[in-house]
Amino acid sequence: MKEQYAFDAIVVGSGITGGWAAKELSQAGLKTLVLEAGGPIDPAKDYVEHVQPYEVPFRVWGDRRLLKKERPIQTDCYACDEIGHKFFVNDVENPYTHADGAPFSWFRGRQVGGRSITWGRQVYRWSDLDFEANAKDGHGNDWPIRYKDIAPWYSHVEKFIGVSGAREGLAQLPDGEFMSPMPMTAVERTARERILKGFNGERLMTIGRAAILTEDHNGRAACHYCGPCERGCITHSYFSSIGSTLPAANATGNLTLRPHSVAAELTYDAKRGRIRGVRVIDANTLEETEYKARVVFLCASAIESVRLLLNSKSAHFPQGLGNSSGMLGRYVMDHHYGSGASGTMSGFKDRTTFGRRPNGIYIARFRNVSAQHPGFLRGYGMQGGSGRKDWHRGIGMPGYGADFKKSLLDLGSWTLSAAGWGETLPHADNRVTIDPHVKDKWGLPAARMDVRWRENERAMQADMMTSMAEMLEAAGCSDIAQHPVDHPPGHCIHEMGGARMSIEPTQGVLNAWNQAWDVHNLFITDGACMASSACQNPSITYMALTARACDHAVNQMKRNEL
Amino acid sequence: MSLIPGFAETAWSAIAAAGARPTPRALNPDQTQMIALIAEVILPRSDTPGATDVGVPAWIDLVVAEYFSGARRAAFLADLGAIDQMAASTSGASLIGLKHHDLMTVMSSLDAATGSKDLTPAQRGYVQLKELVIYGYFTSKPVQQDLLKVVVVPGRFDADVRIPASPT
Q1: Which end of chain A is more exposed for a tag (fewer CB within 10 A), N or C?
Q2: Closest alpha carbon to A184 in A45, A348, A322
């Protein structure tokens, strides 16, 4: 095995959090190596957001035989279609397993940029309602931080990435550093007012807060409203590490980015009680190299980071690196999502929209904000939107002939719909472990998932439907239909937890600075660090925690404490 | 190959004019004719192109050949056979041999089931075919570009554009 010493810091992963760690550490003057398991991306060649359905043989449905062979799991994600499947892993090369009766969806991207290329771009701050939740109802452990600790870092991140949104002054969904919001449609504006009135101001529908530019920002152009962000963006109008943080890191001259680098193990120096470095397998040549550094940041995504630690066993850490508490791999969460309702808004027949807004509406959490709901703990936000029905409506509609065809070229009625994204209670038995038999293409033991929805999630899902139906009624909709959705855990792609932060070393894997209790030169700043899930889309919180942890690490290094 | 009755001449001339006569991969000649005929009845040529004008039958052949699994393909083709049996029991001829009036009677009976959950095999075949016809037509390049006037790079988002009120 070769050895390489030249780095101050190693970042494992180049996605949303890896890009941030690379930027913050290299801007602080650290020689930083970013290891990415997948290959490089060339936006000019690889981004496909402007490819039209008629330019691919199956009109976006995909080459089923190929996709089912190579990506049987990934194709269950909406974005893994005929045009965008290249940004998802090959399931044969990257297996994982799950416990009997506990299906788990794990959607992954292995490429420079990770899932920041395909992410949903919705960004919502947490509040103390979220950070205090575990302490108040006793599920999970108390967070070692509160809103005041992360608020400046939210601002730091928002100012750099660019977030469009509307200031609403809600305590449970704090405003951020917003550029101008994307506009709501006439139907959405009307619904907002009627719902506010119908629920005495308790339920508020606002435009989605999105990491998509409505103004030119930091050398990136404002959105051109082509629509399918999940296929890339040649103008870098939505935030991705490729378009924003990695170029900023590269500009310092301190960044080394190594694609095709599969992190196999964190090596531990038992004498000094430190991480020595990272053992890397070249994805193509299978050559092994140990890269050494003063500090290591794990940003490989929650399950990958936990898997890497569980696979990094030593005499000192027989149960996995940093696992003296026994908490590594426990309290895995996702958001349970999708149940909701839709309705038809009459009128507005002389209104339509132009351009494809890659963003929807958001209804801020209103359950268990003040009064306690009798059926469940915690809460959910709702995401949705409005639009006029198009030709798709013909598929389920009686009719044929020239008039039928003509009617489908006209716009149909307005629909308004939204679905819930719900908080999942942290549960010790929702776990990721290592499968004793299955290994990936590089011989690394695979993750085994055992994560289940429980009573609280089920009760909340039922309420998502009835509450949305109530709001549609208040908005003046007709033909209101409730939609139950039952995706397996992981399907929301908000998988998190497994190496939670804690106040005491016995209760978790990380301290208040995302620093491993057991090994101080190891930081884990992806979703693995989460002690609870809240209901907000989590990436902005991971980014803020990453920037905050980098600042802490740099200060400790300056003081020679690392 | 069966003789083409009067009503279907429009459909077949449209296929010929568009140069889109399929080289079937999953479908036999009778099935190809049947799909082309039903497609052209659902979305006929009028002042705008019809299903065959934009190559819908050939695309459906590709979907049935390569997108459908073997089991789904077999079930779909069996259901198409049920449509023919239904035509035969109604009028004593396979679907592509029906006179216009009889064809419309069969179409009306098949289409009445759209949206229903309790379907006969013939209706099930028709509902699947109708989805393929509509999807294939509206995602085709001529329809996307010339009729729907899809703008690939709009450059802006207008949330509230005033237009003449639509009838539906």
Answers
A1: N
A2: A348
Separation of alpha carbons B130 and B137, rounded Å: 10
CA A420 – CA B73 distance, rounded (Å): 37
**Looking at this protein, which amino acid is placed at residue B48?**
T
Domain assignment of residue A214, given as a range: 163-238+336-422+453-488
Domains in chain A, number? 2
Q: How far apart are CA A239 and CA A513, in angstroms?
A: 25
Residues 6 or more apart whose Cβ sits within 8 Å of residue A515: A522, A523, A549, A552, A553
Which pair of structure tokens corresponds to residue B44? 């006929």
The alpha carbon of residue A390 is apart from the nearest alpha carbon of chain B, in Å, by 10
Angle at A515 between CA A514 and CA A519, to 5 degrees: 155
If you count residue pairs, one on A and one on B, with CB atoms under 8 Å apart, how many are there? 146
Measured in degrees and rounded to the nearest 5, phi and psi for residue A485 equal: -130, 135
Q: Count CA atoms closer than 13 A to B86's CA, side-chain side.
A: 22
d(CA A111, CA A115): 8
**Helix (H) or strand (E) run with residue B161 in it:** strand B158-162
Give me the amino acid identity at A184.
Answer: M
Q: What angle do CA A268, A272, A274 make, to 5 degrees?
A: 40
A68-126 pLDDT tens trace: 999 999 999 999 999 999 999 999 999 999 999 999 999 999 999 999 999 999 999 99
C-beta atoms of A58 and B67 within 8 A: yes
Bridge partners of A279, per DSSP, are A265, A290
Claim to verify: residue A443 and residue A351 sit in the same structural domain: no
The string over B41-54, giving b where at least 16 C-beta atoms fall within 10 Å of a residue's C-beta and e elsewhere, is: bbbbbeebbbbbbb
Using alpha carbons, list the distances in angstroms from residue B48 to A356, A376, A406, B52, B54: 26, 55, 9, 12, 11
Give the residue from A454, A465, A530 showing the smallest Cα distance to A489.
A454
User: Which positions in chain B touch A59 (Cβ < 8 Å)?
Assistant: 59, 135-136, 139
* ipTM higher than threshold 0.90: yes
pTM for the structure as a whole = 0.95
Asked if residue A544 is part of any domain, the answer here is yes
Find the residue in B nearest to A358 (Cα): B157
* A17-32 pLDDT per residue, tens: 999 999 999 999 999 9
Percent of chain B as helix, strand, coil, to the nearest 5: 60, 5, 40
Option in A226, A354, A400 nearest B152 (CB): A226
Give the separation between CA A175 and CA A474, rounded to whole angstroms: 26
On whether both A400 and A458 belong to a single domain, the answer is yes
- Judged by CB atoms closer than 8 Å, whether chains meet at B157 and A413 is answered as no
Kindly state whether residue A13 falls inside one of the protein's structural domains.
Answer: yes
